[in-house]
């Protein structure tokens, strides 16, 4: 028997929450979203569940997820619409949701008018298009920039054609959304990933009506990504800033052994290189000598500059969720890399290895080569003798490079926290660009300070305290700041990589197309263990799960207990990274981690 939360928690302020859920075909989004909606309903809140109903059949996120786009045959796209409808009906039946489709709010003429409007405007007019005070032209840029890995809004004819398809969906959503808000008058809305253009449109409409909006998204720990959820006000970038702002409350809080172990598991997945969210290849199965591979002298200290892909930041800027030109030492990454090359040319005691981000090239998730990659290939034609480029095609693991690297230089990549967790020093030039506490790294805000920080990092070298601080931060990011839904959604994301699983899943789909989805619904807990946390967030209007009005501290452990457990975790990481394969010269990362065992 499912127990209503309203019978457990004291009566308080309940709200009418609109769940805008037009992407039911993506089950790993739709099912966790439904769990949160059900939890809130159990807690006494009123839920209005709104789906698509084939209003977005020109192109949508599920179509992209299944490898389709606006140019795919209409029958293929309608097949995804059919799956979306079937899974929506299953969720509404199993969870008891009431609501409507976007198509219920639209007349046939609305779709025709949306297409005619978009077709009649120039590209510049499309981008400037605002309807009902919602900048639909700007918001619809998001998917095209990401899909095509753009570094600017300089769209060719093909780019513009895709963009217009997304814009048509955004225009349609404004029309339906306005009627929806006026009819339902929700007091809060929730979406899975508020950056998707149609979801963003609904969030902007919510703001126009003075209604707060929340986003949901899978957590960042790759070992249990689908078993956790970010739940926060506004969008992911704002959520991350809010989490970082709370760091001062956790900086001196020892991390419990079970959370240390969860963090370690995330890194073990990263090191394996099998996750689609892990861009680095797995560590080498054979001994890897970075000095021999890149002809680096023994008297030279190694600096690795880790680049980031640009398209995600360009997309975020285009839709207005990131500042267009934040104050940074270098205007962009290319300027930073040019400066580093000149710096290295004056320092023969150092060797600079520039690691181009694998996402700029075709990879496990995308088949597109970015504009930035093409520019870099031109930039790197002539380099000093102590500078070399590590291209993704080299298929070298970042973590193999880490063994003999003295200092990492970082723009805004997550490498900045990954290497800090391993105890290695990292120097950054723009703390405003990273979404973790900048104090985990060395910060150089001017050219002189940047050089000084590099030299200081080289002198300081490896640090156990740096490992400790980074584990404590990741406890916030991967544990305290997330909603745990594992009791209702236990499947691991990597199960689909198993050949046996794929064969079984294919047979299941032939016999019973929704068998797995039905099983997920049946296996869910009567009530999420995290239900009180979920209720508290929406009832109080908190920005994140670690907001002061929501977060309840767990019992603390001593620093000595934390240190013992941390040494064990780092030794485990060392064994996983290097084992008997690594070069164990004095001062290498392999030697440092081995000494902790």
Task: Provide an overview of this structure.
The chain folds into two domains: 5-246 and 484-489 and 524-540, Rossmann fold (3-Layer(aba) Sandwich); 254-478 and 560-594, 3-Layer(aba) Sandwich (Rossmann fold). The protein is built from 24 helices and 13 strands. The longest helix is centred in the N-terminal third of the chain and has 28 residues, at 157-184. It is 46% helix and 10% strand. The chain has 597 residues and is α/β, with parallel strands linked by helices. The strands form two sheets. A seven-stranded mixed beta sheet has the order 3-2-1-4-5-6-13, sandwiched between helices. Helix 1 (27-42) links the parallel strand 1 (16-20) and strand 2. It has helices at 27-42, 61-65, 74-95, 108-120, 123-127, 136-139, 141-147, 157-184, 197-208, 236-245, 257-272, 290-294, 311-318, 333-345, 371-379, 398-402, 415-421, 447-460, 464-480, 499-511, 515-523, 531-540, 559-577, 589-594; strands at 16-20, 46-51, 98-101, 188-192, 213-218, 228-233, 301-306, 350-355, 387-390, 405-410, 426-428, 442-443, 483-484.
Topology:
Layout: E1 16-20, H1 27-42, E2 46-51, H2 61-65, H3 74-95, E3 98-101, H4 108-120, H5 123-127, H6 136-139, H7 141-147, H8 157-184, E4 188-192, H9 197-208, E5 213-218, E6 228-233, H10 236-245, H11 257-272, H12 290-294, E7 301-306, H13 311-318, H14 333-345, E8 350-355, H15 371-379, E9 387-390, H16 398-402, E10 405-410, H17 415-421, E11 426-428, E12 442-443, H18 447-460, H19 464-480, E13 483-484, H20 499-511, H21 515-523, H22 531-540, H23 559-577, H24 589-594
Parallel strand pairs: 1-2, 1-4, 2-3, 4-5, 7-8, 7-10, 8-9, 10-11, 11-12
Antiparallel strand pairs: 5-6, 6-13
Helix pairs in contact: 1-3, 3-21, 4-8, 7-13, 8-9, 11-19, 11-23, 17-19
């Amino acid at each position: 028997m499912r127990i209503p939360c309203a019978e457990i928690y004291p009566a308080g302020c309940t709200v009418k929450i609109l769940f805008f859920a037009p992407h039911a075909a993506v089950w790993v989004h739709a099912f966790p979203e439904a769990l949160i909606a059900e939890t809130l309903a159990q807690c006494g809140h009123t839920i209005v569940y709104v789906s698509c109903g084939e209003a977005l059949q020109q192109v949508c996120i599920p179509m992209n997820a299944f490898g389709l786009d606006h140019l795919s045959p209409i029958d293929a796209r309608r097949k995804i619409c059919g799956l979306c409808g079937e899974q929506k009906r299953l969720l509404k039946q199993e969870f008891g949701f009431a609501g409507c489709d976007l198509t219920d709010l639209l007349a046939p003429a609305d779709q025709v008018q949306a297409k005619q409007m978009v077709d009649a405007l120039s590209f510049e007019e499309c981008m400037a298009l605002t309807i009902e005070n919602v900048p639909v032209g700007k918001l619809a840029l998001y998917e095209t920039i990401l899909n095509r890995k753009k570094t600017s809004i300089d769209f060719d004819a093909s780019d513009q054609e895709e963009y217009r398809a997304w814009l048509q969906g955004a225009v349609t959503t404004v029309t339906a959304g306005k009627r929806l808000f006026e009819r339902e008058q929700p007091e809060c809305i929730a979406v899975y990933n508020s950056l998707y253009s149609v979801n963003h449109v609904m969030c902007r409409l919510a703001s126009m009506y003075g209604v707060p909006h929340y986003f949901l998204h899978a957590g960042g720990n790759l070992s249990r990504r689908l078993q956790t959820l970010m739940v926060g006000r506004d969008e992911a970038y704002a959520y991350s800033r809010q989490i970082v702002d709370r760091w001062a409350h956790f900086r001196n809080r020892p991390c419990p052994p079970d959370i240390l172990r969860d963090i370690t598991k995330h890194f073990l997945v990263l090191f394996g290189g099998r996750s689609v969210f892990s861009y680095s290849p797995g560590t080498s199965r054979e001994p890897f000598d970075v000095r021999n591979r890149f002809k680096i002298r023994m008297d030279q200290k190694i600096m690795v500059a880790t680049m980031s892909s640009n398209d995600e930041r360009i997309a975020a800027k285009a839709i207005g969720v990131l500042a267009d030109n934040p104050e940074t030492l270098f205007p962009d990454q290319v300027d930073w890399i040019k400066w580093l090359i000149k710096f290295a040319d004056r320092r023969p005691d150092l060797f600079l290895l520039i690691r181009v981000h694998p996402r700029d090239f075709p990879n496990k998730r995308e088949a597109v080569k970015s504009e930035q990659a093409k520019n870099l290939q031109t930039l790197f034609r002539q380099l000093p003798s102590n500078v070399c480029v590590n291209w993704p095609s080299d298929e070298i693991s970042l973590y193999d490079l880490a063994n003999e690297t003295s200092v990492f230089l970082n723009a805004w990549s997550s490498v900045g926290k990954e290497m800090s967790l391993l105890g290695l020093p990292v120097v950054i030039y723009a703390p405003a660009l990273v979404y973790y506490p900048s104090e985990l790294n060395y910060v150089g805000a001017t050219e002189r300070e940047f050089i000084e920080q590099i030299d200081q990092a080289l002198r300081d070298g490896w640090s156990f305290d740096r490992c400790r601080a980074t584990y404590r931060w990741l406890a916030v990011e991967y544990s305290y700041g997330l909603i745990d839904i594992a009791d209702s959604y236990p499947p691991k994301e990597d199960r689909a990589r198993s050949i046996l699983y794929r064969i079984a899943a294919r047979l299941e789909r032939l016999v019973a197309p929704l068998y797995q989805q039905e099983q997920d619904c049946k296996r869910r807990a009567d009530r999420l263990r995290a239900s009180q946390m979920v209720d508290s967030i929406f009832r109080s209007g908190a920005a994140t799960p670690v907001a002061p009005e929501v977060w309840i501290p767990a019992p603390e452990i001593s620093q000595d207990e934390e240190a013992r457990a941390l040494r064990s975790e780092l030794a485990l990481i060392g064994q996983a990274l290097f084992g008997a394969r690594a070069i164990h010269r004095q001062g290498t990362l392999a030697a440092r981690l081995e000494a902790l065992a």
